[in-house]
Amino acid sequence: METAIQKLICVTNRKICNGDLLKRVEEIVKYKPRAILLREKDLTESEYEDLAKDVIKICEKENVKCILHNFIETAIKFKAESIHMTFTNLRIMSADEKKFFKNIGASCHSEEEARKAQSAGCNYIIAGHIFDTLSKRHIEPRGMDFFRDVIKNVTIPVYAIGGINKNNISEVLQAGAIGACAMRGPMQCENVEEYFSGW
Question: Mean pLDDT throughout 126-147?
C-alpha cells in the first residue's frame, strides 16, 4: 500500500525555494514522492531546458518521476513520458505533439475545464485550489464540494492542489483523489526531513 508521500507530487518554484532549487530537489526525492513537477513557467524555453536537464538527472538517480511543464519541444527532446499543461496551452496542443507522451495532464479550475481536459486527451488532471494557501491568499479556496464534483464529472485520475499538507491529504484521498500536489511546503520548509515526517 502506498504511503501519502508516494501519492504526492512536489511542484517546484525556485522563486520561493528555501535555498538552491537543485539542492532542494535532491533533498525531496530522497523521500520518494510520486513525482517532481518542474513548473518554473516564467523561464524561457532555453532556460527551462538547462534546468530540466539537471532536475531529470536528480530524479533518475532516485527513481522518481519528473514531469515537465508546458515546454513541449523540451519535453520531446528529453523523451519525457509525462508533460503537464496549463488548460489554455492544452487546448492548442496538436494531436501530433500529444503522440510523444505517455501521460498528459492539465491544471483545471472548474468542472467544465476538467471535462474539456479529459476530452482533449488528458489522462489525469490537477484540480484546485482546494484549501487556503498563501500562493492564492486573496482568492477563496474552491473547497471539497468542488473537488468531489470534479471527480464525479470525469473518469480520469484527479489530483488535488492548494493548501495540501499532512493534516488534510487524507481528506482529498478519501474523496477519491489519486493523489495530491504540494508546492509551498516542500519548497519553503526549513527542514525537509521534518516536513515529510508523519505523512
Answer: 89
CA dihedral 179, 181, 185, 191 (to 10 degrees): 60
Q: Are 13 and 183 in contact (CB under 8 A)?
A: yes
| pLDDT tens, residue by residue, 73-88 | 999 999 999 999 999 9
Give the model's confidence band at 125: pLDDT under 50 very low, under 70 low, under 90 confident, else very high: very high
Residue type, position 37, single letter: L
Adjacent-strand bridge partners of 68: 38, 83
In the three-class reduction of DSSP (H, G, I as helix; E, B as strand; rest coil), residue 159 is classed as: strand
- Which grid cell sits at 7? 501519492
List phi, psi (to 5°) of 45.
Answer: -65, -40
Q: Is the peptide bond before 109 cis (omega within 30 degrees of 0)?
A: no
Joined grid coordinates for residue 175? 474523496
pLDDT of residue 67: 98
